[in-house]
Each structure stands twice: as C-alpha cells, then as structure tokens.
Amino acid sequence: MFATGIENSIPTIDNGRTRVDQMESCGHYKHWKLDFDCVEELGLRFLRYGPPLHRTYLGPGRYDWEFADLTFADLKRRDIIPIVDLCHFGVPDWIGDFQNPDLPHLFARYAGDFAERYPWVQLYTPMNEMFICAVFSAMYGWWNEQLQSDRAFVTALKHIVKANVMAMTEILKRRPDAIFIQSESSEYFHADSPAAIHEAELRNRWRFLPLDLNYGNRVNSEMYEYLLENGMTKEEYNWFLTHRLKQHCILGNDYYLTNEHRVFADGHSEASGEVFGYAEITRQYYERYGLPIMHTETNMREGPTGQEAVQWLWKEWANVLRIRNVGIPTVGFTWYSLTDQIDWDTALRERNNRVHPVGLYDLDRNIRPVGRAYKKLIADWRELLPASSLCLVVPVVPPSRAESGHAREQREAAAEHLDDVSTEASSPEIGG
Predict the structure, then answer these.
(1) CA 206 to CA 139: how far, in whole Å?
(2) In Å, how far are 323, 351, 367 from 364, measured between CA atoms?
(3) pLDDT tens column, 22-32
(4) Strands, E, within 72-231: which ranges?
(5) How is the chain split into domains, by residue range?
(6) Superfamily of domain 2-425
C-alpha cells in the first residue's frame, strides 16, 4: 500500500487561544481537488486523510458534514482508498483538551457516526500518534493543555488510548471488516554514558505504553507502578486488558530523523539523529506486538541540492525492503505529506507561517524532486512486491467495489465472527 497523506493537525497553543490548522495553513480547504489530482498523478491509490475534527464535530450528535461530504465523495469517485485520520493532535474547543475524562465517549460517538455516514470506508487511524500527542500536550507543555508532569501525561495517555479503542469498537459495529492502521511514532533512547543507562532503559519501556494499552499488552512492573503512581487506577488498567482489538490492526509506525534520542546522566535528552534507523527500531516493535507493519510516516526537508529528501526516501525504502526480506510482514509505505507543511520546524509551537519544505509538492502544487522520485519508485515496485506472497495481501475493498457481492460477503463473514472476537478480547492472557 503505497500512500501519502494530507496533513490535518489541529493542536491549540497559547493556552488554547490559537488553533493551528494545517489544512488551512497549507491551502487544502481551497485546493482540495487539485490535491487529489496530485495524488492521482503520483500513481497512488491510498491516502491518509480525514476531515478537520474541530470544524466537523460541533457537539454531541451535532455535525457539519459539508466539507467531508464533498471530499469523500470525490475520493470515492476517483477510487482513492482513504486511511481515515479522525483525530490529529487536537480536539474541538467544546471538548477542551486531552485531560477531559469525557473524551473517550465523545470521540467514540463521532467515530461511529462517521462510519455510519460513510459505510464504504474501511481503513482507519482513529487517533494519530498517541505517544506524541500525549507527550507534546502533557509532558513537554507545547500543545493543547500545555502541562508538564507525569500525572498529566498519564491522564492524557489513558484518555487518548481509550478513545482510540472505543472508536474502533464503534466503527466495527458499522463496518465489521474495518482495518485499523495505527500511525505511532517509533522511538529509541540511547544512553550517553553508564550513568545514563537506567534512564535510557526506563524511557525505552515508556515509549511502548500507548501501544501496550491499545493492544492489551501487560506492561512490566516498573511501568505498572508508574501508571498507578500517576493517576491510573487498577480498574482503568484492567479495562485495556479486556478490550483487545489487536486482531483488527496493522502496526503503522512513523520514523523521522528526530525519533532517536541521546539520554544524559542528569536525565535530559536531545535528538541523536539516525543511529539504528528504521529497520532495527521497527524490528523491536514487531517482536513486541507481532503485527503486520506499515511505514506510515516519514519525510525530509529539501535542502540546497534538492536531493536531500530524495536520498532519505531511498534510505527509508531500503529499510522497508530490509525488514520485509528478513521475514517481517510489511504491507505499506508512506511519504508524509503530499504538500509542504507550515511551522513544523518549531513543532507547531509558534505561528510564524514558515514553510517546511518536506512535501512531494510545494504549496503551489509544483512537484518536488522527491515527488518525482516517489512516483518512479511506485511504478518500479508496485507490481513486483505483491507477487512474492499472496498471504501478505491486505483484504482491502476499494470504493468502487464496496457494494459488490464479494465485499458484502466479506463484511457478513466479519460480522459473524465479531461475537467470537469479543470473547477473545476479554481474555487478558497476553505477554509483554
């Protein structure tokens, strides 16, 4: 599944006074048809995409579907398969932020109503990058609630992951053969010295918390104590163990040059640059969760030569082929995003209106060298890869075949097994 995405981050900054809306900053509301033309020009059939949550979800049971209706109808007409990104780093003002304990139920209702309105949609990423969302909002103090404590982090984390699981449950009620592709940041922490080893090991267990909770994985004793000491109850923890939807998931993981960290003896850390790389870190995540892998985000700034991003694309693709060739089931790759972004050089913490040149296209919708390179990569590899094993073909139903007899049979078969799945989900016998 070769893919790209249209950036729809919507965090708030300035203590909630300023909304950072990447679809607005990057011109998607105005140029959405042209953006979809660009997707087709690249030869892509998969697109990470979602309506702006803050503009669509007006209150419990209240929606403005106008923009979503226009864009999703056009995606369906073009037979582009959306991987629907329902919540990307922010929530509507009326919900507040990720400290709100009502978030899981409110978000699950939105996800269910979305699936009801667009029954032909099969692929979802309900909550994007749960780890980054919780860390940046409640540990670093950059976005949304702008808090800086372990307790605030655990609170945000349990609400975000519970919202993700409950959203999956509601979507499955409407679309029993739905497939959920996590887009989760894959991290690694390197010890700078022997004195930093314990802190690095702690953070390397900490990085798994969102996916452990999401997949019903038992955490180790140190992480269990950390969760309980910072506000999670035993009942809340056990809820995750007994609501296990892992069997409906693909482990989508993201990798950037900033995903590896150097940890120092005093506890602070800084970006280390690429040390292990995508293949090694992905192997660690696969060994922990045992799910098919999709590389769901990467990019690199276009530098002075114009080839920096092209080289990074080649390197990431080589890493994808590496994990695939050693037997890790790998089903997709994504350059994120379709166009350049705005203000990601400061992680959206400031409104400078500064272009971050990481797109396949610039903001005038002119293709960049990395866009041409990706188009060629797709053309070269698309037909070769699936032939190696039919067992690795994901049972995706394209929009044009959503009402075919085979698609209906697939949904009916999935629905028949949902009761069995629910029974299995209640069994906490999972390693970790």
Answers:
(1) 13
(2) 36, 20, 9
(3) 999 999 999 99
(4) 81-87, 123-127, 179-181, 184-185, 188-191
(5) 2-425
(6) Glycosidases (3.20.20.80)
